[in-house]
Amino acid sequence: MVKCRPTWGHSDYRFTVRLGGSTWVYINSSRVIRELLDQRGSIYCSKPHTPYLSETLSGGLRMALMEYGPRWRKLRKTMGMFTSMTEVKRFSGTMETESTVMMYEYLQDPSNYFQHHARFTNSVVMMVAFGRRTEKDDKLVVFLRSFLWLT
Question: In terms of Cα–Cα distance, which of 87, 4, 151, 83 is closest to 136?
Fold first, then answer.
């Protein structure tokens, strides 16, 4: 079932869970996780090759489905530029503003929660990448919704 025991010092713990034929390891220490990913990332980051999922459905562009290699490292480096703690702090005001707008939209029109969340996500990404926020009826948002069959 679940085994809890100290592994990397007195205050850092992990536990393992067996689900079917797989063993899942949970670690609750950012120090240990960072050490494992920084020093042994190639072991833990690679995914099994799944041509249908990774290439056919996503055009080979979904990082979560990629095998570890040069392309994965390049995308990871690019993502790291936007997700570092410095960048997250830099855009925290934007995220707070968009969160407030999203909560207001939820209160005004709760039945369209999915569209409110999509607008929030799109607006945060647009602000981070292009310095432009999007409104609910923004032409780009309407186009993306119709393109993705969200309307």
Answer: 151
Residue indicated by tokens 């020093």: 39
- Strand spans (E) along the chain: 2-6, 13-19, 22-27
- The answer to whether the beta carbons of residues 63 and 47 sit under 8 Å apart is no
DSSP 24: E
Closest CA to 132 of 122, 147, 146, 145: 122
The token pair at 113 is: 């929660």
| CA separation for the pair 34, 40 (Å, rounded) | 10
Q: What is the pLDDT of residues 105-140, one digit of tens each?
A: 999 999 988 888 888 988 888 888 788 888 877 887
Centroid of chain to Cα 32: 20
Tallying the residues shown for the chain, one arrives at 151
Which tokens belong to 112? 């369209």
Tens of pLDDT, residue by residue over 67-96, are 777 888 888 888 877 777 777 788 888 889
Report in angstroms the alpha-carbon separations of 76 from 30, 63, 118: 19, 8, 24
